[in-house]
Protein backbone atom coordinates (compact mmCIF):
# COMPACT_ATOMS: atom_id res chain seq x y z
CA UNK A 1 0.00 0.00 0.00
CA UNK A 2 1.22 3.48 -0.88
CA UNK A 3 0.87 6.42 1.48
CA UNK A 4 0.00 4.42 4.60
CA UNK A 5 1.38 7.06 6.97
CA UNK A 6 -0.63 9.72 5.19
CA UNK A 7 -3.79 7.67 5.63
CA UNK A 8 -3.29 7.33 9.38
CA UNK A 9 -2.79 11.07 9.59
CA UNK A 10 -5.92 11.56 7.53
CA UNK A 11 -7.89 9.35 9.91
CA UNK A 12 -6.84 11.47 12.85
CA UNK A 13 -7.74 14.66 11.02
CA UNK A 14 -11.20 13.44 10.08
CA UNK A 15 -11.87 11.92 13.50
CA UNK A 16 -11.28 15.32 15.09
CA UNK A 17 -14.20 16.61 13.04
CA UNK A 18 -16.76 14.53 14.89
CA UNK A 19 -17.43 13.20 18.34
CA UNK A 20 -20.10 10.78 19.45
CA UNK A 21 -22.21 13.14 21.58
CA UNK A 22 -22.75 16.86 21.34
CA UNK A 23 -20.76 17.13 18.15
CA UNK A 24 -20.68 20.44 16.34
CA UNK A 25 -22.61 20.11 13.06
CA UNK A 26 -20.31 22.66 11.44
CA UNK A 27 -17.39 20.30 11.95
CA UNK A 28 -19.12 17.20 10.55
CA UNK A 29 -18.28 16.45 6.90
CA UNK A 30 -20.99 15.72 4.39
CA UNK A 31 -20.94 12.22 2.90
CA UNK A 32 -21.92 11.43 -0.70
CA UNK A 33 -22.05 7.68 -1.29
CA UNK A 34 -22.47 6.86 -4.99
CA UNK A 35 -23.16 3.38 -6.38
CA UNK A 36 -22.66 2.96 -10.13
CA UNK A 37 -24.32 -0.37 -10.79
CA UNK A 38 -22.47 -2.99 -12.89
CA UNK A 39 -19.23 -1.02 -13.29
CA UNK A 40 -16.11 -3.13 -13.86
CA UNK A 41 -12.95 -1.65 -12.38
CA UNK A 42 -10.89 -2.42 -15.47
CA UNK A 43 -13.07 -0.14 -17.63
CA UNK A 44 -11.95 3.00 -15.76
CA UNK A 45 -8.94 4.84 -17.16
CA UNK A 46 -7.51 5.23 -13.65
CA UNK A 47 -7.65 1.44 -13.25
CA UNK A 48 -5.60 0.84 -16.38
CA UNK A 49 -8.09 0.97 -19.26
CA UNK A 50 -6.45 2.21 -22.44
CA UNK A 51 -9.51 4.28 -23.37
CA UNK A 52 -10.25 7.60 -21.69
CA UNK A 53 -13.65 6.47 -20.52
CA UNK A 54 -13.80 8.11 -17.09
CA UNK A 55 -12.18 11.57 -16.82
CA UNK A 56 -14.43 12.68 -13.95
CA UNK A 57 -13.91 9.53 -11.89
CA UNK A 58 -10.20 9.71 -12.67
CA UNK A 59 -10.06 13.28 -11.36
CA UNK A 60 -11.70 12.14 -8.13
CA UNK A 61 -9.21 9.28 -7.83
CA UNK A 62 -6.31 11.68 -8.41
CA UNK A 63 -7.26 13.72 -5.35
CA UNK A 64 -8.35 10.82 -3.18
CA UNK A 65 -7.66 7.20 -2.31
CA UNK A 66 -8.07 4.64 -5.08
CA UNK A 67 -8.46 1.02 -4.03
CA UNK A 68 -6.90 -0.91 -6.91
CA UNK A 69 -8.19 -4.33 -5.82
CA UNK A 70 -11.66 -3.76 -4.35
CA UNK A 71 -13.87 -6.84 -4.34
CA UNK A 72 -17.67 -6.86 -4.35
CA UNK A 73 -19.58 -8.95 -1.78
CA UNK A 74 -21.62 -10.63 -4.53
CA UNK A 75 -22.35 -10.56 -8.26
CA UNK A 76 -25.98 -9.49 -7.75
CA UNK A 77 -27.41 -6.08 -6.91
CA UNK A 78 -29.55 -6.81 -3.84
CA UNK A 79 -27.14 -8.98 -1.80
CA UNK A 80 -24.16 -6.81 -2.66
CA UNK A 81 -25.80 -3.52 -1.66
CA UNK A 82 -27.27 -4.95 1.53
CA UNK A 83 -23.82 -6.30 2.44
CA UNK A 84 -22.16 -2.95 1.75
CA UNK A 85 -24.74 -1.04 3.79
CA UNK A 86 -24.87 -3.47 6.74
CA UNK A 87 -21.38 -4.99 6.91
CA UNK A 88 -22.83 -8.52 6.77
CA UNK A 89 -21.97 -11.14 4.17
CA UNK A 90 -24.83 -12.23 1.87
CA UNK A 91 -25.42 -15.59 3.55
CA UNK A 92 -25.54 -13.77 6.90
CA UNK A 93 -28.20 -11.20 5.97
CA UNK A 94 -30.07 -13.49 3.55
CA UNK A 95 -31.30 -10.87 1.06
CA UNK A 96 -30.92 -12.16 -2.51
CA UNK A 97 -32.08 -11.06 -5.94
CA UNK A 98 -35.59 -11.81 -7.09
CA UNK A 99 -36.72 -12.63 -10.62
CA UNK A 100 -39.90 -12.80 -12.64
CA UNK A 101 -40.35 -16.43 -11.58
CA UNK A 102 -39.89 -15.60 -7.88
CA UNK A 103 -40.73 -11.91 -7.44
CA UNK A 104 -41.37 -12.01 -3.71
CA UNK A 105 -39.04 -9.90 -1.60
CA UNK A 106 -36.67 -11.23 1.05
CA UNK A 107 -36.64 -8.51 3.69
CA UNK A 108 -33.71 -7.76 5.99
CA UNK A 109 -34.33 -8.57 9.65
CA UNK A 110 -35.45 -5.61 11.75
CA UNK A 111 -32.63 -6.42 14.15
CA UNK A 112 -29.89 -5.45 11.68
CA UNK A 113 -28.67 -1.85 11.94
CA UNK A 114 -27.50 -0.17 8.76
CA UNK A 115 -24.81 2.33 7.92
CA UNK A 116 -27.53 4.95 7.43
CA UNK A 117 -29.25 4.24 10.74
CA UNK A 118 -25.97 4.55 12.63
CA UNK A 119 -24.93 7.85 11.05
CA UNK A 120 -28.48 9.20 11.47
CA UNK A 121 -28.28 8.47 15.19
CA UNK A 122 -24.96 10.34 15.25
CA UNK A 123 -26.53 13.51 13.83
CA UNK A 124 -26.37 13.36 10.05
CA UNK A 125 -29.39 14.05 7.86
CA UNK A 126 -29.76 10.98 5.66
CA UNK A 127 -31.22 10.55 2.17
CA UNK A 128 -31.40 7.69 -0.34
CA UNK A 129 -32.12 8.33 -4.02
CA UNK A 130 -32.38 5.31 -6.30
CA UNK A 131 -34.59 3.35 -8.67
CA UNK A 132 -36.27 0.24 -7.35
CA UNK A 133 -35.47 -2.73 -9.61
CA UNK A 134 -33.70 -5.07 -7.20
CA UNK A 135 -33.44 -2.33 -4.54
CA UNK A 136 -37.01 -2.18 -3.32
CA UNK A 137 -37.35 -0.27 -0.03
CA UNK A 138 -39.00 -3.36 1.44
CA UNK A 139 -35.74 -5.33 1.37
CA UNK A 140 -34.42 -3.00 4.09
CA UNK A 141 -32.32 -0.73 1.88
CA UNK A 142 -34.29 2.34 3.05
CA UNK A 143 -33.66 1.73 6.73
CA UNK A 144 -32.14 4.70 8.53
CA UNK A 145 -32.82 7.26 5.81
CA UNK A 146 -34.80 10.39 6.71
CA UNK A 147 -35.65 11.00 3.06
CA UNK A 148 -36.08 8.40 0.31
CA UNK A 149 -36.77 8.71 -3.41
CA UNK A 150 -37.22 5.41 -5.27
CA UNK A 151 -39.14 6.88 -8.21
CA UNK A 152 -36.81 8.24 -10.86
CA UNK A 153 -35.74 5.70 -13.49
CA UNK A 154 -32.70 7.41 -15.00
CA UNK A 155 -29.40 8.73 -13.70
CA UNK A 156 -30.41 12.20 -14.88
CA UNK A 157 -33.70 11.90 -13.03
CA UNK A 158 -31.89 10.99 -9.86
CA UNK A 159 -29.53 13.94 -10.21
CA UNK A 160 -32.58 16.21 -10.57
CA UNK A 161 -34.12 14.59 -7.49
CA UNK A 162 -30.91 15.24 -5.57
CA UNK A 163 -30.96 18.87 -6.70
CA UNK A 164 -34.50 19.29 -5.43
CA UNK A 165 -33.76 17.55 -2.15
CA UNK A 166 -30.67 19.61 -1.35
CA UNK A 167 -32.43 22.85 -2.29
CA UNK A 168 -34.87 22.26 0.56
CA UNK A 169 -32.29 21.27 3.17
CA UNK A 170 -30.57 23.38 5.82
CA UNK A 171 -27.08 24.17 4.52
CA UNK A 172 -25.71 23.92 8.06
CA UNK A 173 -27.04 20.39 8.66
CA UNK A 174 -24.50 17.67 7.76
CA UNK A 175 -25.74 15.40 4.97
CA UNK A 176 -25.27 11.69 4.34
CA UNK A 177 -26.64 10.91 0.87
CA UNK A 178 -26.69 7.52 -0.86
CA UNK A 179 -27.32 7.75 -4.61
CA UNK A 180 -27.59 4.62 -6.74
CA UNK A 181 -28.00 4.44 -10.50
CA UNK A 182 -28.47 1.54 -12.91
CA UNK A 183 -25.89 3.06 -15.24
CA UNK A 184 -23.94 1.37 -16.80
CA UNK A 185 -26.16 -1.73 -16.34
CA UNK A 186 -27.45 -3.55 -19.44
CA UNK A 187 -28.84 -2.91 -22.00
CA UNK A 188 -26.02 -0.33 -22.31
CA UNK A 189 -27.85 2.49 -24.06
CA UNK A 190 -25.76 5.65 -24.16
CA UNK A 191 -27.45 8.51 -26.02
CA UNK A 192 -26.27 9.17 -29.53
CA UNK A 193 -25.01 12.51 -28.24
CA UNK A 194 -25.62 15.17 -25.60
CA UNK A 195 -25.26 18.64 -27.04
CA UNK A 196 -22.13 18.39 -29.14
CA UNK A 197 -20.72 15.46 -27.15
CA UNK A 198 -21.13 12.08 -28.92
CA UNK A 199 -21.52 8.86 -26.95
CA UNK A 200 -23.03 6.07 -29.04
CA UNK A 201 -20.59 5.13 -31.78
CA UNK A 202 -17.45 6.48 -30.13
CA UNK A 203 -15.91 3.02 -29.59
CA UNK A 204 -18.14 0.53 -31.43
CA UNK A 205 -16.96 -0.54 -34.88
CA UNK A 206 -19.10 1.13 -37.54
CA UNK A 207 -18.30 -1.70 -39.93
CA UNK A 208 -20.01 -4.21 -37.64
CA UNK A 209 -23.63 -4.73 -38.76
CA UNK A 210 -24.38 -7.94 -36.87
CA UNK A 211 -27.23 -8.90 -34.53
CA UNK A 212 -25.84 -7.01 -31.53
CA UNK A 213 -26.08 -3.71 -33.41
CA UNK A 214 -29.59 -4.48 -34.66
CA UNK A 215 -30.81 -5.30 -31.14
CA UNK A 216 -29.17 -2.19 -29.70
CA UNK A 217 -30.45 0.26 -32.29
CA UNK A 218 -33.97 -1.11 -31.95
CA UNK A 219 -33.78 -0.04 -28.30
CA UNK A 220 -32.16 3.31 -29.03
CA UNK A 221 -34.90 4.19 -31.50
CA UNK A 222 -37.78 2.93 -29.36
CA UNK A 223 -39.84 5.53 -27.48
CA UNK A 224 -39.14 3.82 -24.15
CA UNK A 225 -35.70 2.49 -25.10
CA UNK A 226 -34.13 1.31 -21.86
CA UNK A 227 -37.43 -0.05 -20.54
CA UNK A 228 -37.43 -3.03 -22.92
CA UNK A 229 -34.82 -5.30 -21.34
CA UNK A 230 -31.45 -6.52 -22.61
CA UNK A 231 -32.14 -8.48 -25.83
CA UNK A 232 -28.50 -8.28 -26.96
CA UNK A 233 -27.69 -11.17 -24.61
CA UNK A 234 -30.01 -13.40 -26.64
CA UNK A 235 -29.43 -11.91 -30.09
CA UNK A 236 -27.26 -14.86 -31.12
CA UNK A 237 -26.86 -18.35 -29.64
CA UNK A 238 -23.10 -18.56 -30.19
CA UNK A 239 -21.64 -15.05 -30.34
CA UNK A 240 -18.66 -14.43 -32.59
CA UNK A 241 -15.61 -12.43 -31.58
CA UNK A 242 -17.10 -9.46 -33.46
CA UNK A 243 -20.41 -9.81 -31.60
CA UNK A 244 -18.61 -9.84 -28.26
CA UNK A 245 -16.38 -6.91 -29.22
CA UNK A 246 -19.37 -4.79 -30.23
CA UNK A 247 -21.18 -5.40 -26.95
CA UNK A 248 -18.02 -4.80 -24.91
CA UNK A 249 -17.34 -1.56 -26.79
CA UNK A 250 -20.96 -0.49 -26.31
CA UNK A 251 -20.51 -1.04 -22.59
CA UNK A 252 -17.47 1.26 -22.68
CA UNK A 253 -19.58 3.91 -24.38
CA UNK A 254 -22.13 3.63 -21.60
CA UNK A 255 -19.36 3.81 -18.99
CA UNK A 256 -18.22 7.03 -20.66
CA UNK A 257 -21.77 8.39 -20.49
CA UNK A 258 -22.06 7.33 -16.85
CA UNK A 259 -18.89 9.25 -16.08
CA UNK A 260 -20.30 12.31 -17.87
CA UNK A 261 -23.36 12.18 -15.63
CA UNK A 262 -21.17 11.65 -12.58
CA UNK A 263 -19.48 14.95 -13.41
CA UNK A 264 -22.91 16.59 -13.54
CA UNK A 265 -23.74 15.02 -10.18
CA UNK A 266 -20.69 16.62 -8.57
CA UNK A 267 -21.60 19.98 -10.10
CA UNK A 268 -25.10 19.78 -8.62
CA UNK A 269 -23.71 18.75 -5.25
CA UNK A 270 -21.25 21.64 -5.33
CA UNK A 271 -24.04 24.12 -6.06
CA UNK A 272 -25.63 23.29 -2.69
CA UNK A 273 -22.85 21.90 -0.49
CA UNK A 274 -19.15 22.45 0.11
CA UNK A 275 -17.44 19.80 -2.00
CA UNK A 276 -14.18 20.40 -0.12
CA UNK A 277 -15.95 19.34 3.07
CA UNK A 278 -17.59 16.28 1.51
CA UNK A 279 -16.41 12.71 1.82
CA UNK A 280 -17.16 11.36 -1.67
CA UNK A 281 -17.27 7.56 -1.94
CA UNK A 282 -17.81 5.88 -5.31
CA UNK A 283 -18.16 2.12 -5.76
CA UNK A 284 -19.96 -0.53 -7.77
CA UNK A 285 -21.93 -3.50 -6.54
CA UNK A 286 -20.49 -5.94 -9.11
CA UNK A 287 -18.91 -6.12 -12.54
CA UNK A 288 -20.08 -7.52 -15.86
CA UNK A 289 -19.07 -10.47 -18.05
CA UNK A 290 -18.36 -10.36 -21.77
CA UNK A 291 -18.01 -14.06 -22.46
CA UNK A 292 -14.71 -14.46 -20.59
CA UNK A 293 -16.24 -17.60 -19.10
CA UNK A 294 -19.00 -18.32 -21.59
CA UNK A 295 -21.71 -15.83 -20.64
CA UNK A 296 -22.79 -12.21 -20.81
CA UNK A 297 -24.08 -10.20 -17.88
CA UNK A 298 -23.73 -11.12 -14.21
CA UNK A 299 -26.29 -13.82 -13.54
CA UNK A 300 -23.89 -16.55 -12.41
CA UNK A 301 -20.35 -16.94 -11.17
CA UNK A 302 -17.82 -15.11 -9.01
CA UNK A 303 -14.98 -14.70 -11.47
CA UNK A 304 -12.75 -11.65 -11.61
CA UNK A 305 -14.85 -9.81 -14.20
CA UNK A 306 -17.82 -9.98 -11.79
CA UNK A 307 -16.10 -9.22 -8.49
CA UNK A 308 -13.40 -6.62 -9.29
CA UNK A 309 -15.02 -3.20 -8.85
CA UNK A 310 -13.87 0.38 -8.36
CA UNK A 311 -13.68 2.01 -4.95
CA UNK A 312 -12.61 5.64 -4.74
CA UNK A 313 -12.73 7.77 -1.59
CA UNK A 314 -11.90 11.48 -1.52
CA UNK A 315 -12.54 14.12 1.07
CA UNK A 316 -11.23 16.41 3.79
CA UNK A 317 -7.89 15.30 5.22
CA UNK A 318 -7.35 12.43 2.77
CA UNK A 319 -4.15 12.65 0.76
CA UNK A 320 -3.92 11.04 -2.69
CA UNK A 321 -2.91 7.40 -2.45
CA UNK A 322 -3.35 3.99 -4.04
CA UNK A 323 -4.15 0.91 -1.96
CA UNK A 324 -2.95 -2.18 -3.80
CA UNK A 325 -4.01 -4.89 -1.33
CA UNK A 326 -7.36 -6.69 -1.80
CA UNK A 327 -10.20 -5.17 0.22
CA UNK A 328 -13.77 -6.41 0.47
CA UNK A 329 -16.56 -3.86 0.10
CA UNK A 330 -18.42 -5.70 2.84
CA UNK A 331 -16.03 -3.83 5.16
CA UNK A 332 -16.93 -0.41 3.76
CA UNK A 333 -19.56 0.37 6.42
CA UNK A 334 -17.17 -0.22 9.31
CA UNK A 335 -14.43 1.71 7.51
CA UNK A 336 -16.61 4.77 6.89
CA UNK A 337 -18.01 4.68 10.42
CA UNK A 338 -14.47 4.69 11.75
CA UNK A 339 -13.62 7.70 9.60
CA UNK A 340 -16.68 9.52 10.93
CA UNK A 341 -15.96 8.49 14.54
CA UNK A 342 -19.23 6.58 14.80
CA UNK A 343 -19.30 3.20 16.51
CA UNK A 344 -19.89 0.17 14.30
CA UNK A 345 -21.52 -3.02 15.55
CA UNK A 346 -19.79 -6.20 16.66
CA UNK A 347 -21.48 -8.17 13.88
CA UNK A 348 -20.10 -6.04 11.04
CA UNK A 349 -17.19 -7.25 8.99
CA UNK A 350 -14.18 -5.22 10.19
CA UNK A 351 -12.80 -2.06 8.65
CA UNK A 352 -10.11 -2.50 6.03
CA UNK A 353 -6.72 -0.83 5.81
CA UNK A 354 -6.17 2.25 3.68
CA UNK A 355 -8.55 4.67 5.39
CA UNK A 356 -8.90 3.45 8.95
CA UNK A 357 -6.26 2.67 11.56
CA UNK A 358 -7.87 -0.58 12.68
CA UNK A 359 -7.50 -2.39 9.36
CA UNK A 360 -5.49 -5.63 9.45
CA UNK A 361 -1.72 -5.40 9.10
CA UNK A 362 -1.83 -8.42 6.81
CA UNK A 363 -4.81 -8.11 4.44
CA UNK A 364 -7.47 -10.70 5.16
CA UNK A 365 -8.91 -12.87 2.37
CA UNK A 366 -12.19 -11.71 0.87
CA UNK A 367 -15.20 -14.04 0.54
CA UNK A 368 -17.87 -13.05 -2.02
CA UNK A 369 -21.07 -15.11 -1.96
CA UNK A 370 -23.90 -15.70 -4.44
CA UNK A 371 -27.19 -17.60 -4.27
CA UNK A 372 -29.62 -18.20 -7.15
CA UNK A 373 -33.13 -18.46 -5.75
CA UNK A 374 -34.65 -19.97 -8.90
CA UNK A 375 -32.25 -22.93 -9.02
CA UNK A 376 -30.87 -23.19 -5.49
CA UNK A 377 -27.34 -23.04 -6.90
CA UNK A 378 -24.74 -21.20 -4.85
CA UNK A 379 -21.25 -19.82 -5.33
CA UNK A 380 -18.55 -18.97 -2.82
CA UNK A 381 -15.20 -17.40 -3.60
CA UNK A 382 -12.03 -16.93 -1.60
CA UNK A 383 -9.66 -14.24 -2.81
CA UNK A 384 -6.30 -13.01 -1.58
CA UNK A 385 -3.38 -11.29 -3.29
CA UNK A 386 -2.19 -14.52 -4.92
CA UNK A 387 -5.15 -16.82 -5.55
CA UNK A 388 -8.82 -16.75 -6.51
CA UNK A 389 -10.83 -19.83 -5.54
CA UNK A 390 -14.40 -20.46 -6.70
CA UNK A 391 -16.70 -23.13 -5.26
CA UNK A 392 -20.02 -23.81 -7.00
CA UNK A 393 -22.63 -25.98 -5.30
CA UNK A 394 -25.56 -27.40 -7.24
CA UNK A 395 -27.45 -29.81 -5.02
CA UNK A 396 -25.02 -32.54 -4.01
CA UNK A 397 -22.62 -31.68 -6.84
CA UNK A 398 -19.74 -29.25 -6.40
CA UNK A 399 -17.27 -27.65 -8.79
CA UNK A 400 -14.02 -26.16 -7.52
CA UNK A 401 -11.70 -23.90 -9.51
CA UNK A 402 -8.44 -22.25 -8.48
CA UNK A 403 -6.68 -19.46 -10.35
CA UNK A 404 -3.30 -17.80 -9.90
CA UNK A 405 -4.03 -14.08 -9.75
CA UNK A 406 -0.51 -12.97 -10.65
CA UNK A 407 0.26 -15.35 -13.52
CA UNK A 408 -3.29 -15.70 -14.86
CA UNK A 409 -5.23 -12.46 -14.27
CA UNK A 410 -7.83 -13.41 -16.90
CA UNK A 411 -8.52 -16.71 -15.12
CA UNK A 412 -8.15 -18.98 -18.12
CA UNK A 413 -6.39 -21.92 -16.43
CA UNK A 414 -7.74 -23.84 -13.45
CA UNK A 415 -4.67 -24.91 -11.43
CA UNK A 416 -6.55 -26.72 -8.66
CA UNK A 417 -5.11 -30.11 -9.60
CA UNK A 418 -1.58 -28.74 -9.28
CA UNK A 419 -2.26 -27.13 -5.88
CA UNK A 420 -4.38 -29.59 -3.89
CA UNK A 421 -3.24 -28.13 -0.56
CA UNK A 422 -4.49 -24.69 -1.57
CA UNK A 423 -7.83 -26.15 -2.65
CA UNK A 424 -8.25 -27.93 0.69
CA UNK A 425 -7.29 -24.78 2.57
CA UNK A 426 -9.74 -22.57 0.67
CA UNK A 427 -12.50 -25.15 1.04
CA UNK A 428 -12.00 -25.22 4.81
CA UNK A 429 -11.91 -21.42 5.05
CA UNK A 430 -15.11 -21.08 3.06
CA UNK A 431 -16.85 -23.66 5.25
CA UNK A 432 -15.81 -21.65 8.32
CA UNK A 433 -17.13 -18.43 6.78
CA UNK A 434 -20.40 -20.17 5.85
CA UNK A 435 -20.74 -21.49 9.41
CA UNK A 436 -20.28 -18.00 10.85
CA UNK A 437 -22.82 -16.66 8.36
CA UNK A 438 -25.33 -19.33 9.41
CA UNK A 439 -25.05 -18.20 13.03
CA UNK A 440 -25.90 -14.63 12.06
CA UNK A 441 -28.66 -15.77 9.69
CA UNK A 442 -30.32 -17.61 12.58
CA UNK A 443 -30.16 -14.46 14.71
CA UNK A 444 -31.38 -12.22 11.89
CA UNK A 445 -33.82 -14.26 9.77
CA UNK A 446 -35.20 -12.70 6.61
CA UNK A 447 -38.93 -12.35 6.02
CA UNK A 448 -40.48 -13.23 2.66
CA UNK A 449 -43.17 -10.83 1.41
CA UNK A 450 -45.08 -10.42 -1.85
CA UNK A 451 -44.15 -6.73 -2.09
CA UNK A 452 -42.29 -7.26 -5.36
CA UNK A 453 -45.14 -8.84 -7.31
CA UNK A 454 -46.89 -5.65 -8.48
CA UNK A 455 -46.97 -5.25 -12.25
CA UNK A 456 -44.88 -2.06 -12.31
CA UNK A 457 -42.19 -3.65 -10.19
CA UNK A 458 -42.15 -6.71 -12.43
CA UNK A 459 -41.76 -4.40 -15.43
CA UNK A 460 -38.72 -2.84 -13.78
CA UNK A 461 -37.12 -6.26 -13.44
CA UNK A 462 -37.86 -7.06 -17.07
CA UNK A 463 -36.39 -3.71 -18.12
CA UNK A 464 -33.13 -4.66 -16.45
CA UNK A 465 -33.04 -8.02 -18.21
CA UNK A 466 -34.13 -10.25 -15.31
CA UNK A 467 -36.22 -13.35 -15.97
Automatic annotation (TrEMBL):
It comes from the Bacteria. Gene3D superfamilies: Alkaline Phosphatase, subunit A. It comes from Rohdeia mirabilis. Keywords: Hydrolase. This is Arylsulfatase. One of its GO terms (molecular function) is arylsulfatase activity. Residues 29-131, 163-342 form the Sulfatase N-terminal domain. It is an enzyme of class 3 (hydrolase). Its EC number is 3.1.6.1.
